[in-house]
Amino acid sequence: MTWSLSFEPLFSWPVLAALLVPLALLMAVSLFLGRRGALLRLAALAVLALALFNPVLLDEQREPLKSVVAVVVDESQSQDIGERAAETREAAEALVQQLSRLDEFEVRVVEAGRDGAADERTETRLFGALEAALRDVPPSRVGGAIMITDGQVHDTPADASGFAGPLHALITGEEGERDRRIRFERAPRFAIVDSPVELTYRVLSTEEESGPIDVEVFVNGELAAMERATIGREMPVEITVPNAGRNIVELRIPTEEGELTQTNNRAVALIDGIRENLRVLLVSGEPHSGERTWRNLLKSDAAVDLVHFTILRPPEKQDGTPINELSLIAFPTRELFVEKINDFDLIIFDRYQHRDVLPILYYDYIAEYVENGGALLIAAGPEFAGEQSIARTPLIAALPALPNGQVVEAGFYPRLSETGKRHPVTRALDGSASDPPDWSRWFRAIGIDRPEGQVVMEGPNGMPLLLLAREGEGRVGMFLSDQGWLWARGFEGGGPYVPLYRRIAHWLMKEPELEEERLTAQGRGMTLEIVRQTMADEAAPALVTSPSGQTREVQLEAEDPGLFHGTLQVDEIGLYQVENGDLSALAHVGPVNAPEFADTVSTEEKLRPVAEESGGSVRRLASRLGGPNLPNIVPVRPNASSAAGRDWIGLRTTNDSVLKSVRRVPLFAGFLGLGLLLLALGSMWYREGR
Questions:
Q1: Which of 80, 201, 206, 404 would suit a FRET pair with 99, their CA atoms being 20 to 30 Å apart?
Q2: At CA 560, angle to CA 555 and CA 561, rounded to 5?
Q3: How confident is the model at residue 40 (pLDDT cuts 50, 70, 90)?
Q4: What span, in angstroms and rounded, lies between the C-alpha atoms of 265 and 252?
Q5: pLDDT(625) > 50
Q6: Cα 245 vs. chain centroid, distance in angstroms?
Q7: Full DSSP string of 612-679
Q8: According to the model, what pLDDT value does residue 162 have?
Q9: Helix, strand, coil percent content, the chain, rounded in steps of 5
Q10: Model pLDDT for residues 153-192, shown as the tens digit of each residue
């Protein structure tokens, strides 16, 4: 119960001033001149003023508010080391129980570091969590905060100006912990495939060490080199990026006896491999409508260097024109097919026929080129089925099928075969889902016998139209029609010639994305995504091994024919290994070399300046007698300069309260006010009457 005096004037203050100030001046003049009855007039004026001011006595019923105390529990991954998690859990339970016995405080428990986005989990951001927990609390009601952490906090402010109460930190872990760690100092994000690239790294130790240490270098999970490093010194390492796309470079150091954790004994760098321009040789046997389709497509690809020749004057053409008057250049057969054949990633014969332009021995060189890992594409026209077909040369050794002499010239819709619906070259081509396909017809197909490899597109009556095969270490494609240009010209609406031609060329040049059997994995936030490409109808579950060595199975669901997808929500940051059948893949979840693992040794030094400036303290939470060694909690005054002692910590109480009810008692109202006013005026009248 609180009593207070308040005024509730009958008129506004300006009106009261206009009424009472002139009267007060007259009273002052009367008193100064000593007029008789001046005191009675002053008393009457005072009573009148009180009546107009209307004084009221207020009886307030108030309920005191509690101070809000935040208990911030660090649940970041570094807290999983040793017994820290158990210490943290026991300390939090004991603190909440102790605070619940103090009626002055309202407790809010905040768990930080276990939930949230990946970038929030790779750093220990306790002050951000504390700010969020007390955002709706006025500074006068903040009693303080208690943090239970290993001391590795990454959002520590420069000072305590933004915090209203004392901050106390209870540090988990043991004093004098030992740890080694390795980190990359310089690692490029991009590198040229099959070219050396230099990275630098450093091995650090909590102890004063400067001796040598062995470092294992892994590229995409394969041991690439063994290095000898000096602890504390920046060291170079040279690797070769083997694949286009994402490559994982990992450094490992051995675990020392008594070391705190093995987590930071590995460092990871992600390097995107970029191929140098692919070199393609396109040889057109004669000018025709589809010739420029291949040329324009390959020229438009910035990743392709194209060399294109068209045979305009075959040797058998003798029209008497002197050689020195021809504007044509001689076909550099020896330079292309003997000296520099291995410089090309792909050779395309576009409606080419044997006319003695190439010596017969050179076809043997081309077959050997394919056998040793080269790529060959036959874009066939009617000449492939004739007497001068290149299938009648030594190139036959590299061909997966031979022409049967049949040339079908009738309108038909190219269709994907059952194999083609799953093959990455033709899977999900625009327009392939409907029947007939939503693209234009073609009007010529070349017949073949006993095809080897995979028939991914079919022509009239199920004839093979696109054949993809592996020959030795190389690859061969046979496009058994020269009508693709109809799609490029928009005939009957055209068709998806650009993705089809480009995928054919890139599959032949062994682009990883177009492999029939492929397993990939990548991290998105804290989700591990797994993609399996296969020509099989089903995909077995994937086996996932976490950075800590735990294994889990992930079911792969069909997304498209030949494409299966699976996801796994994870709570560990680091390198995951995924296995499916005889394939394996690596994926890094979370930011690379996250601050959470850069330094895992528990420390009191990071929080001490802020805590002591706020009036709080930092002390180690060492276990004692099987339980946490917690200090006593003592309520302190709001203006106390210090809130910590040897075995106690203080939390600030508040003077804030909430108003529950108010009772008004007017002091100059009713008969009492009327009587006083009449008495004063009557006395003044009586005195004036005499």
A1: 80
A2: 100
A3: low
A4: 6
A5: no
A6: 17
A7: HHTT-EEEE--EETTEE-PPEEEEE-TT-S--B-SSEEEEE----EEEEEEEEEESS-HHHHHHHHHH
A8: 76
A9: 25, 35, 40
A10: 888 888 877 788 899 999 988 887 888 888 899 999 999 8
The residue count for the chain: 690
**Dmax (CA) of the chain:** 158
β-pairing verdict for 375-379 and 346-350: parallel
Q: From its phi and psi, is residue 574 left (phi > 0), alpha (psi between -120 and 50) or beta?
A: left
- Angstrom distance (rounded) from CA 660 to CA 60: 8
Q: Say if CB 442 and CB 459 are below 8 A apart.
A: yes
What is the four-CA torsion angle of 99, 100, 105, 107, rounded to 10 degrees?
A: 80
Q: What's the pLDDT at 278?
A: 84
> Residue 549 carries which DSSP code?
S
- What is the rounded CA–CA span in Å between residue 524 and residue 589? 7
Check whether 416 has a pLDDT greater than 60. Answer: yes
**In whole angstroms, how far apart are CA 466 and each of 286, 383, 530, 555?**
22, 17, 30, 33
How is residue 188 written in tokens? Answer: 């490029």
Q: Which of 559, 593, 619 is nearest to 182 (CA)?
A: 593
Helix runs in 526-590, H state only: none
- Across 597-615, average pLDDT: 86
Query: Which residues lie below 8 Å from residue 387, measured CB to CB, with a gap of 6+?
Result: none
495-499: long-range contacts, CB 8 A cutoff, minimum separation 24: 495/414, 495/431, 495/437, 495/439, 495/440, 496/429, 496/430, 496/431, 496/439, 497/293, 497/297, 498/297, 499/429, 499/430
Instruction: Check pLDDT > 50 for residue 575.
Output: yes
Please state, rounded to an integer, the average pLDDT across all residues of the chain.
Answer: 84
Residue pair 8/54 in contact (Cβ under 8 Å)? The answer is: yes
Q: Does residue 54 or residue 342 have the better pLDDT?
A: 342
Q: Directed axis angle between helix 38-53 and helix 13-33, to 10°? A: 170
> Reading across the β-sheet that carries 551-554, which strands appear in turn?
551-554, 542-545, 574-580, 583-589
- Neighbour-count burial for 603-627, b at 16+ CB within 10 Å, e otherwise: beebbbebbbbbbbbbbbbeeeeee
As a whole number of Å, the CA-based R_g of the chain is 44
Banded pLDDT at 245 (limits 50, 70, 90):
confident
User: 101 CB contacts (<8 Å, ≥6 apart)?
Assistant: none
